[in-house]
Write a structure and sequence with these properties.
Number of helices: 3
Helix content: under 10%
Shape: globular
Structural class: mainly beta
Strand order of the largest sheet: 3-4-15-14-16-12-13
Distance between the termini: 44 Å
Strand content: 25-35%
């Protein structure tokens, strides 16, 4: 039986062809139904009601920031490898409720995305990386996180249905931590850093989880397991970690403090507000 976890949510992956410099004010610059997300696939919120719900928790002795898409928001991925790319996401765009780096970027010149990915049914070549052990698949209103033993199956599904897919390190699989899947350079890094992951929780909900404090990677993964992550896909961090989140009624919060390579980010995971109802 195929080993994967799905979350129902309205999703779209957009990729693009060339990169422009990101302008940042503070930079030098297992299947579950949609109802488990807190809404059916047809439920939509409009305009200012849409939000990312933030909370803090503690697990395995470490504090964590949880960011969950509110009902009706849309999840999408944006990359610099599609022909109509018009520039990196802007923190001034009020429709972007969450913006964070997703897959690894090869270097600051090519800005190639880690692993082959699928965009609206079209397969796009990425660079090969042995650390890409898992992937996120978006088909219709479902999002799944699976090990790469099912990659070809998922790519076929994405290409045949007009779906979307990207690859990263699968650091929690079936509720078990897989610290060995983190790149060695990160495992050995000292001082330790802030980590972030996209998680399917045991209750079926989708959460973006970020350390509230610097940790070693094994501490972070143990914290995800203790928190209740069933599947967890690593998200690019370190000096690529900058992003932002908006919660209803609160100021925009910038995420992480290390901005050195932000201008070279090649792809982003976003939560966006749905189009306003007429």
């Amino acid at each position: 039986m195929r080993n994967k976890t799905h979350v129902g949510i309205h999703c779209k992956l957009i990729t693009y062809n060339y990169i422009s410099m990101l302008k940042i004010k503070h930079l030098l610059l297992a299947t579950v139904p949609a109802a488990l997300m807190g809404c059916g696939s047809s439920a939509m919120m409009s305009g200012p009601q849409a939000s990312v719900v933030m909370s803090h928790d503690e697990a395995a002795g470490h504090r964590l920031l949880l960011m969950k898409p509110a009902p009706g928001t849309q999840l999408r991925l944006v990359s610099c490898k599609q022909h109509d790319y018009s520039g990196a996401p802007s923190i001034d765009d009020p429709t972007i409720l969450l913006n964070i780096a997703a897959a690894f970027t090869l270097d600051t010149e090519s800005m190639d995305v880690c692993g082959d990915h699928v965009v609206a049914g079209r397969r796009i070549k990425g660079y090969d990386d042995v650390t890409a052990t898992g992937h996120m698949l978006i088909v219709g209103n479902n999002v799944s996180i699976s090990p790469n033993s099912h990659l070809n199956e998922s790519i076929n599904e994405a290409t045949s249905t007009g779906g979307y897919l990207f690859q990263q390190c699968l650091i929690v699989e079936d509720g078990k931590g897989k610290v060995e899947r983190i790149p060695q350079a990160l495992r050995e890094r000292n001082p330790h850093i802030i980590f972030r992951a996209a998680c399917i929780m045991t209750d079926g909900s989708l959460a973006i989880v970020q350390g509230d404090e610097p940790m070693y990677c094994d501490e972070f993964i143990n914290s995800l397991v203790a928190l209740g992550a069933r599947q967890a896909l690593y998200l690019d961090m370190g000096t690529w970690a900058w992003g932002w989140v908006r919660e209803a009624g609160k100021p925009t919060q910038e995420l992480a403090e290390r901005f050195f390579n932000t201008r070279y980010q090649s792809n982003w995971l976003q939560v966006v507000a749905p189009p306003a109802r007429q």
